[in-house]
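QA checklist item 7 of 12: single-chain prediction sanity check.
[x] sequence parsed
[x] length recorded as 91
[x] structure emitted
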Amino acid sequence: MVSREIPMRIRALIPQLRTTDLEASIAFYTQVLGLELAFRYEDFYAGIRAGAQVFHLKRVDAPTHPSATCARANTSTSTWKPTTCPRPRPR
């Protein structure tokens, strides 16, 4: 039996934007920018459509600095695991 490695192909990415005010974010994207509310899940998650593109909004309790968390790939299972980012070295 010949083992063939099949390369993983990414067909789409959907960005997830975090917000502390889901209602205000939905209003901004739909009323100010004129985009479409694609879906809403309870009081903490929504999708916004911009033509053929979609991005998600997720309500969080507090803002997080972008460098506070990272994701590391597990290539054997094709999954991502949130981890603490290493601190940058002083210059």
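[x] summary fact logged: Residues 22-32 form the longest helix (11 residues).
[ ] second reviewer sign-off
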